[in-house]
Amino acid sequence: MPLDRRDFVVHCSATIAGASLSSCRLDEGNSRTPRGDYDRLVAMHAAIPPESGGGANHYPMAADALHALAPNARLPTDWFDGVRYYDAPLSRRAPIEDAAEVLGDIERHGDWFDLFRAELRDRSWRTVVSRWAPRLAPGLSGATFHGLIRTAHAVRGLQRRDTPERRLELAAGLAYWAARFVELPVTATPHSTPDLRQSFAEIEARAGADEEPGFHQVMGPLLAYAFADPIRRAAPGVTPHRELRSLVLVTTTALLEMLVQERNRIWLLHNVTGPAAVGLLLPVVDTPTAHQLVAYAKQATVALHRAYGAPFVPESHVRRRLRPWPELTAIAVERQSIHGLKLIEALRRFAGDERSDRVARSTAEQWFEWV
């Protein structure tokens, strides 16, 4: 039977994986712990549409990021109240029989949710992710990475603890990814992988790209300015983890300069949180799929910067005086910004050597000066 928000919020019950749940009394006897708060929040937000006219539902993603930064932090009460912004019936037509025919059909979101909910009832969550990640990888840019990001945060939640509520959140993430699937144009001409750092820095500003679009207008220019032939090939002998770290350093370097230029900051922020989300999936997929995810992340980030970025001098605004990560993390946790939490968590996770660490902390400092 299809599951909608009424099952959770009005009747406060559902049946997943043979277990009876109650969104009113999740983790009974332990409902006041941060872990219980997380399960309660994702259960409330899973069986409702993943976006509204104003954009994607970030609360479940931000909740995972908050707990990654501060495991004992309590989730803000208004994040639970945020359900009302997305409260609507899930759109359904019929059970999905041929998935390839309905990829990218947001009107079938409820059908996708039912499909993944059923798969997660019958299989391990790792099996479901391993099965679908290579099929969904070409469309990871859809809805400006949000389906991918929500899936990735759900995976990390399940790695901490496998619960029916978290499986439901994974079903919601995968359904969003599938329903907003958009495959960027691909050319067949082979080229070697370019210097991405140089490619980003030299991308010319698109006419009109300084005007920030609404959520549902973002993908048009992204599709128009995508190119794949120099991006899809991985350098021989480079692991997906290493390749992804290099990509996130490049996109963070670009974001720092776009923050300084005050240019499309919210959308270009996703050029960091999008590929960083791929990093959360790499531990649970095989190596070919990992390479595939990183390759499509490269393609999508270049397209996003071509659509909304501008030329810059790499690392020209890296700072000398920087607060340590504990202080930066504390600011993010205190401010409770859904975008800020995801960004700071991603920056901290990918800050490795001294160079990438300084770029990451400079970006965090610049972000805090804006919001």
Structural commentary:
The radius of gyration is 20 Å and the shape is globular. The longest helix has 22 residues, at 240-261. It has a two-stranded antiparallel sheet. The protein folds into 2 domains: 5-179, no CATH class; 184-371, no CATH class. With 371 residues, it is mainly alpha-helical. It contains 17 helices and 4 strands.
Topology record:
Layout: H1 5-10, E1 14-16, E2 19-21, H2 34-46, E3 51-52, E4 55-56, H3 59-69, H4 77-81, H5 99-102, H6 109-122, H7 125-136, H8 146-160, H9 164-179, H10 196-202, H11 219-224, H12 240-261, H13 265-281, H14 287-308, H15 325-335, H16 338-350, H17 354-370
Antiparallel strand pairs: 1-2, 3-4
Helix pairs in contact: 2-3, 2-9, 3-8, 3-16, 6-9, 8-9, 8-13, 10-12, 12-13, 12-14, 12-17, 13-14, 13-16, 15-16, 15-17, 16-17
Q: Write down the domain tally.
A: 2
Biggest sheet details: 2 strands, antiparallel
Q: How much strand content do the residues show?
A: under 5%
Indicate the overall shape: globular
What distance separates the N and C termini? 43 Å
Q: Return the average pLDDT rounded to an integer.
A: 87
- Percent of residues in helices comes to 55-70%
Radius of gyration, in Å, reads 20 Å
Structure class: mainly alpha
Give the number of helices: 17
Number of distinct beta strands? 4
Series of secondary-structure elements, N-terminal to C-terminal: HEEHEEHHHHHHHHHHHHHHH
| Stretches with pLDDT under 50, minimum 5 residues | 1-34, 188-193
- Give the strand line-up of the largest sheet: 1-2
